[in-house]
């Protein structure tokens, strides 16, 4: 009798292990994008503007360059609207183009977001800001130009 | 008698395990070549959208390039608002013109931004004999903002279609 019990215990254990393994195998994929709690954005904290986020490794040199100049254009970027649609998000809407590159900045450092890396409008706007700034345009002029080129509801 | 009971027990055990493995695999292989629980939520939302029914994955794209095919690829991101504005107008146009417009979701395969030199989403690229020949970077014009018109896309399709539409 004792022997029979042991004989049953072995398959029972195998079955349990099997169920656990199979269940885990099916469920483990759910966390593969665990960093995406913020409207699909990936955030990365770095000490300063000089330290670019690791996620840029996937992107083009143009995108890397644009992230590298955010510190230089911080002031104007905070006044410029982004017209990609992010300012109309229901949750955590962006308040300016700056937010498309930087989720937050504090004593701890800069929390980069990959939003702009995946957003053509956001990169085009900053590329134009850089271009117009180098042409010597003022902040007001740049704001005006952004409105003319990117605001779908712009009325000349 | 005991041996018979045991064989029944093991029989049931095997059926259960095989059954579980089958059930587990049912969730696999969306058009992205992986189960939907591995996709971004924004991508999952597009799975049943007919405007995104011609998805191409990296392996197939690489193969088409290696095979020197001539074809159109629309690079988009499932999160990009401008793509969401452009695709529902561009996809019906491609269908109307008989264009096999492959759709590559860069959100899922982000290293292809750098690899295919995609600077902004959306970007429409034409490959001739496996080599990039032309591209339109940016989406459809929205209101008074800058951007392409639907006729610009129509022209692009019509210009390249005779060279191949694999």
Give the helix tally of chain B. Answer: 6
Spans of at least 5 consecutive residues with low confidence of chain B: none
* Helix share bin of chain B: 40-55%
Quaternary structure: heterodimer
Number of helices of chain A: 5
- Which structural class do you get from the secondary structure elements of chain B? alpha+beta
- Main sheet strand line-up of chain B: 2-1-3-4
Q: Low-confidence parts of chain A lasting 5 or more residues at pLDDT below 50? A: 24-36
Characterize the overall form of chain B: elongated
Q: Separation of termini of chain B?
A: 65 Å
Classify the secondary structure makeup of chain A into a structural class.
mainly alpha
Q: Give me the count of strands of chain B.
A: 4
User: How much is the average pLDDT of chain A?
Assistant: 84
| Biggest β-sheet: strands ordered side by side in the sheet of chain A | 1-3-2
**Largest sheet geometry of chain B:** 4 strands, mixed
How far is the first residue's CA from the last residue's CA of chain A? Answer: 93 Å
Q: Estimate what percentage of residues of chain B fall within beta strands.
A: 5-15%
Q: How would you sum up this structure, described in words?
A:
The complex is a heterodimer of chains A (156) and B (166). Chain A is mostly helical. Helix content of chain A is 42%, strand content 9%. Chain A has 5 helices and 3 strands, in the order αβααββαα. In chain A, strands 1-3-2 form a 3-stranded antiparallel β-sheet, with no helix packed on it. About 8% of the residues of chain A have low confidence. Chain B is an alpha+beta fold and 166 residues long. In chain B, 42% of the residues lie in helices and 14% in strands. In chain B, a hairpin with a 2-residue loop joins strand 3 and strand 4. In chain B, strands 2-1-3-4 form a 4-stranded mixed β-sheet, sandwiched between helices. The mean pLDDT of chain B is 91. Chain B is elongated and about 80 Å long. Classes of the chains: A mainly alpha (156), B alpha+beta (166). Chains A and B meet through helix 1 and helix 4 of A and helix 1, helix 4 and helix 5 of B.
């Amino acid at each position: 009798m004792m022997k029979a019990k042991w004989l049953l215990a072995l398959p029972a254990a195998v079955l349990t292990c099997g169920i656990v393994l199979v269940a885990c195998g099916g469920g483990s994929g759910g966390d593969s994008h665990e960093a995406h709690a913020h409207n699909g954005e990936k955030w990365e904290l770095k000490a300063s503007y000089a330290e670019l986020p690791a996620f840029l490794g996937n992107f083009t040199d143009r995108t890397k360059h644009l992230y590298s100049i955010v510190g230089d254009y911080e002031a104007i970027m905070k006044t410029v609207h982004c017209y990609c649609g992010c300012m109309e998000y229901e949750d955590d809407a962006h308040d300016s183009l700056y937010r498309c590159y930087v989720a937050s900045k504090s004593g701890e450092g800069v929390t980069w977001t990959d939003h702009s890396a995946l957003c053509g409008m956001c990169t085009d706007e900053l590329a134009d800001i850089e271009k117009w700034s180098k042409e010597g345009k003022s902040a007001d002029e740049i704001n005006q130009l952004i409105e003319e080129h990117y605001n779908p509801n712009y009325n000349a | 008698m005991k041996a018979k009971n045991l064989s029944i027990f093991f029989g049931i055990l095997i059926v259960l395990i095989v059954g579980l493995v089958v059930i587990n695999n049912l969730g696999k292989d969306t058009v992205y070549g992986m189960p939907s629980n591995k996709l971004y939520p924004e991508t999952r939302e597009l799975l049943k959208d007919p405007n995104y029914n011609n998805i191409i994955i990296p392996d197939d794209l690489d193969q088409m390039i290696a095979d020197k095919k001539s074809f159109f690829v629309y690079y988009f991101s499932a999160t990009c608002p401008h793509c969401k504005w452009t695709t529902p107008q561009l996809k019906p146009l491609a269908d109307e013109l008989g264009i096999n417009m492959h759709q590559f979701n860069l959100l899922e395969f982000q290293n292809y931004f750098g690899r295919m030199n995609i600077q902004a989403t959306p970007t429409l690229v034409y490959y001739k004999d496996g080599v990039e020949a032309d591209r339109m970077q940016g989406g459809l014009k929205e209101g008074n903002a800058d951007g392409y018109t639907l006729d610009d896309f129509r022209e692009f399709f019509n210009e390249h279609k005779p060279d191949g539409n694999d």
